[in-house]
Specification:
The protein is an alpha+beta fold and 391 residues long. It has nine helices and 24 strands. It has helices at residues 3-15, 20-30, 36-50, 59-74, 86-107, 111-118, 310-313, 328-339, 365-373; strands at residues 127-128, 131-133, 139-141, 150-153, 156-160, 166-170, 183-187, 192-197, 203-206, 211-215, 223-234, 243-246, 251-254, 258-263, 270-276, 279-282, 287-290, 294-299, 302-307, 320-327, 342-345, 354-360, 379-383, 386-390. Helix 1 (3-15) packs across helix 3, helix 3 crosses helix 4 and helix 4 runs antiparallel to helix 5 (86-107). The chain crosses the membrane at residues 87-106.
């Protein structure tokens, strides 16, 4: 492929107008496999093609972009790019390079001052934080609780594990009734996430701005929890005691399985994605059973089943923002929750623009917004905890 052809493809990619066929051609040329030499060779091709526009990147800029690119392909910061589909993996790599080129180009123009001003109030990503409300109403800040402290409630010992996960360990207590209905609630704020292992051994990952209410210990008939927001469940198997997740619009019934439920109140649909086992999604109208690799979507009172994009559904748990032709409005809802910012649109037309790509959730918000800005069709301004979206 000639330098002129590469240049044309890169420009159409940066403009957001590249076709799937041309994107495949571009990726085939790069042949990125995570090997440093091949990454450097691909970067040299990019810089060389940009030279057709009299652009020359200094060595310090090349090193900076190379560092970011190798981090993307080596799995640092909880990134698992190598486990993604090839299209996503290469898209992530090209996004980083394209973003770096765009950022450097911006520094060579008067518009750079505008970008610096718009992004001067950067926002850090979310982290492990949550509160635990006990049965007696006491609220415990789990972010500040140390790993040595324990709480005992109704025959259950509650403590934090070495990795910060909250652990519920059932210990038989003659004074505790088998019909005890005491409940606890874990709540993550915007910009928080947390993990808990329930007294039956089920492991739950709670996404940002979510809550899980559950019995301190489960009874023998069923295991019922209530969810707002999003959580990924790895349910301990117990054929005699079904596990039931209740959300605002549906119930999900399982015996032992791995699945994700996205039930945010501000999302237009509720999604249940199954990775392992079998679940029944129960609404007021009917019960729908889904199999591994499927996703049940509840919208407008109806449930539909489709093939799931498991990597996209599980991206948040794997430390990623991952989008395949997602609207900017959908993306910014996730950005708002994770970075604890309010999003304001100066131009309503940009809400429906579609984007694809991948980026670590553990980057500052400016890096996320810079990548979106490389399309040239949208711009952002950060003011405290408010992000303004502009055409």
């Amino acid at each position: 492929m000639t330098s002129k052809q590469i240049n044309s493809l890169l420009r159409s990619y940066a403009d957001g107008t590249i076709s799937k066929e041309d994107f495949d051609i571009l990726i085939s040329h790069f042949k990125l496999t995570g090997n440093d030499a091949e990454i450097l060779a691909a970067m040299d091709d990019i810089w060389h093609s940009l030279n057709a526009y009299e652009f020359s990147a200094p060595e310090d800029v090349k090193k900076s972009i190379f560092k970011r690119l190798t981090q993307q392909t080596s799995g640092k910061n909880n990134l698992k790019i190598k486990q993604l589909k090839p299209w996503y993996r290469y898209a992530a790599a090209v996004l980083v390079v394209a973003a770096g080129a765009a950022i450097y180009l911006a520094t060579q123009s008067p518009a750079n001052q505008s970008i610096a001003k718009r992004y001067k109030n950067d926002v850090k990503p979310g982290f492990e934080q949550a509160t635990l409300t006990l049965a007696n109403g006491k609220v415990v800040n789990l972010s500040q609780a140390n790993n040595q402290g324990t709480i005992q409630e109704h025959g259950v010992i509650i403590k934090k594990g070495a990795d910060g996960t909250l652990l519920y360990h059932y210990k038989a207590d003659p004074a505790s009734s088998n019909t005890d209905t005491s409940h606890n609630t874990i709540k993550t704020p915007r910009g928080g996430q947390f993990q808990v292992v329930l007294s039956d051994g089920s492991h739950v990952w709670l996404n940002t701005a979510s809550s899980l209410t559950f019995p301190v210990k489960f009874n023998e008939q069923n295991r019922t929890v209530k969810l707002t927001g999003e959580a990924y469940f790895e349910v301990a198997k117990n054929a005699k005691s079904p596990f039931l997740v209740i959300t605002d619009k549906q119930q999900v019934k399982v015996l032992g399985t791995h699945f994700d439920i996205n039930a945010y109140a501000d999302e237009p649909v509720t999604k249940t994605t199954l990775l392992e086992g079998k679940v029944s999604v129960v609404t007021a109208q009917k019960s729908t059973t889904i199999s591994p690799g499927e996703q049940a979507v509840f919208a407008n009172g109806n449930v539909s089943v489709k093939t799931a994009d498991l990597e996209e559904a599980m991206a948040w748990k794997n430390g990623l923002f991952l989008y395949n032709q997602q609207s900017l409005e959908n993306i910014m809802r996730q950005v708002s929750r994770w970075y604890n910012v309010d999003v304001v649109y100066e131009d309503q037309d940009v809400r429906k623009q579609l984007f694809s790509g991948a980026l670590s959730r553990f980057k500052n918000i400016s890096e996320m917004l810079e990548v979106l800005e490389t399309t040239g069709s949208v711009h952002f301004k950060i003011e405290g905890r408010r992000v303004t979206v502009m055409q």
